[in-house]
Recover the amino acids of this structure.
């Protein structure tokens, strides 16, 4: 269920924690298996992670449902995580989110028909002096304008 | 400006070990490795410096470090809180990106003081670029023989790792953060016992904010008095202020404590499009909002902001001009706490939902005449009644927005539309 490559990545996290405390790696382990499963977790994957880390399945499931970065429903290949909290709101995030929704023909929380992009409104991403901003994958995009949003989104493949 | 955490920020590749060492970096740590400092000397220097916790609580760092039972048997831990995520706050991201070695050295110095041979830097899950930068710096430090076991033939061990979060504001609360490192839901623990006695994996642990750690090497390098003199009484040193919102040039500014707010606003290029200042949240979304008049007379230090009726918090200054609908602004903040409440304590779990839903119905034109009293009642029932400070953090904006801008809420309820935006 967990690929060799995923195990290798998970093991590099386990090494950071004291002997017997391998469940400290659960957050990263869940991210690793999620990334290999179209950005989505399911019961079997969560259980596999729990088994691998020798922890109860329910404990891994609690983590998987408590934190925001795990997905339990289909998402796009690219997830646009648009900050809508105060500094971004003050600098026009709401209009940009509406623009993006119209451009892609989806509402926040939905996936484009081709499965390429989903849009999510998120709370503060900690880049307030670069507001308005969003995150795609590992990358932050700051000081967004409609033109910039178009350019970034048109470049997603 | 830019005298401590940001002192190398204008240099090319300012995050490199070479740049850090060229400006005195790791010289304190090397002296420690040679046995030239005692823990007591370092704590005394920190106390002189007046450094207070930069994550928001403002607790004196030297005092905190003195609480650790350094001679108790068994493992002890040192943890850095880089789980930055309160609306308006974005300074630790820049410290990690632009001066990661100061965080490492600050933690190393702390590890010596508290006899903690293992450290973790908890970085929020979305901060991949800062995480990579910090990991790169760790690699450099290990390769230079500055971390590890029996460092530089001393009897000092210090291993430092980063831990990534996965999207939960509550993990910035120190005991929730410890739970999270242990691989659990980030729900705060009851205190006491405090982490200094029962912390990570049940062992004595000290947790400090990124900016606090990053300030320590320069305090030791130049002396506590030097740092204290950069600031004002009761607020030693410099502070990073994240100025965001309706200003011409939003940015992080590292300035002396005690700077008049007016000057900080000028540093950020003044009001965007010459608009009129309406309100300021001085320390992050949890701190009470101030009117323009009060803010313009305020100085940026713990006592100055306290006197103005708010808190320095993490130094996250959110600027609002007169186009801002305060009902909309508060509704957005209420949504944040509603979304981020961990659900452990009933007053916060239920109360944040009530606050958001009542504000939302006002925004939807469905407000009722007694909704303001209802909001005030709910926030009062949250305040002081929860395990951690998230409850208070959700309550304080509501009380202060309603106190300072009550007429906008009354107008919205009566007319079903914004007094400002129509």
């Amino acid at each position: 269920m967990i690929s060799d490559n995923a195990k290798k990545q998970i093991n590099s996290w386990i090494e950071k924690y004291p002997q017997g405390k391998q469940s400290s790696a659960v957050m990263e382990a869940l991210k690793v298996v999620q990334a290999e499963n179209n950005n989505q977790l399911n019961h079997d994957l969560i259980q596999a992670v729990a088994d691998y880390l020798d922890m109860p399945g329910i404990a891994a499931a609690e983590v998987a449902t408590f934190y925001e970065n795990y997905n339990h429903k289909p998402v796009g290949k690219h997830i646009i995580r648009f900050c809508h909290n105060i500094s971004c709101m003050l600098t026009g995030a709401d209009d940009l989110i509406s623009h993006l929704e119209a451009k892609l023909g989806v509402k926040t929380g939905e996936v484009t028909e081709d499965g390429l992009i989903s849009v999510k409104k998120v709370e503060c991403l900690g880049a307030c002096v670069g507001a308005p901003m969003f995150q795609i994958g590992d990358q932050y995009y700051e000081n967004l304008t409609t033109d910039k949003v178009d350019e970034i989104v048109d470049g997603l493949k | 400006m830019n005298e401590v955490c940001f002192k190398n920020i204008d240099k090319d590749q300012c995050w490199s070990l070479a740049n850090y060492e060229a400006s005195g970096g790791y010289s304190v740590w090397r002296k420690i490795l040679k046995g030239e400092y005692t823990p007591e000397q370092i704590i005394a220097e920190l106390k002189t410096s007046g450094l207070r916790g930069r994550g928001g609580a403002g607790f004196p760092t030297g005092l905190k470090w003195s609480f650790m039972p350094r001679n108790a048997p068994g493992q002890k831990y040192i943890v850095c809180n880089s789980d930055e995520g309160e609306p308006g706050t974005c300074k630790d991201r820049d410290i990690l990106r632009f001066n990661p070695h100061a965080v490492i050295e600050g933690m190393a110095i702390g590890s010596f003081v508290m006899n903690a041979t293992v450290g973790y830097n908890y970085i929020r899950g979305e901060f991949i670029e800062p995480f990579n930068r910090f990991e790169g710096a760790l690699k450099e430090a290990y390769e230079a023989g500055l971390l590890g076991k029996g460092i530089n033939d001393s009897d000092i061990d210090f291993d430092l790792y980063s831990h990534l979060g996965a999207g939960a504001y509550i993990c910035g609360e120190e005991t929730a953060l410890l739970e999270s490192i242990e691989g659990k839901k980030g729900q705060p623990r009851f205190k006491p016992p405090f982490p200094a006695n029962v912390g990570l994996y049940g062992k004595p642990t000290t947790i400090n904010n990124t900016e606090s750690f990053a300030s320590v090497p320069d305090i030791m390098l130049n002396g506590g008095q030097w740092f204290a003199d950069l600031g004002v009484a009761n607020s030693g040193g410099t502070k990073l202020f994240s100025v965001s919102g309706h200003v011409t040039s939003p940015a992080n500014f590292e300035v002396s404590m005690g700077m008049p707010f007016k000057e900080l606003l000028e540093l950020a290029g003044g009001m965007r499009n010459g608009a009129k200042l309406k309100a300021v949240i001085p320390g992050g979304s949890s701190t009470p909002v101030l009117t323009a008049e009060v803010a313009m007379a305020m100085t940026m230090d713990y006592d100055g902001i306290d006197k103005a009726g708010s808190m320095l918090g993490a130094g996250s200054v959110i600027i609002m001009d007169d186009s801002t609908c305060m009902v909309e602004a508060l509704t957005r903040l209420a949504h944040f706490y509603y979304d981020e409440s961990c659900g452990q304590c009933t007053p916060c779990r239920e109360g944040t939902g009530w606050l958001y839903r009542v504000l939302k119905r006002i925004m939807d034109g469905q407000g009722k005449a007694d909704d303001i009293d209802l909001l005030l009642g709910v926030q009062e029932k949250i305040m002081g009644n929860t395990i951690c400070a998230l409850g208070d953090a959700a309550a304080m904006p509501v009380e202060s927005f309603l106190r300072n801008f009550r007429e906008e809420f009354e107008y919205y309820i009566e007319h079903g539309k914004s007094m400002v935006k129509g």
Q: What stands out?
A: The first strand of chain A starts at residue 78 and ends at 83.
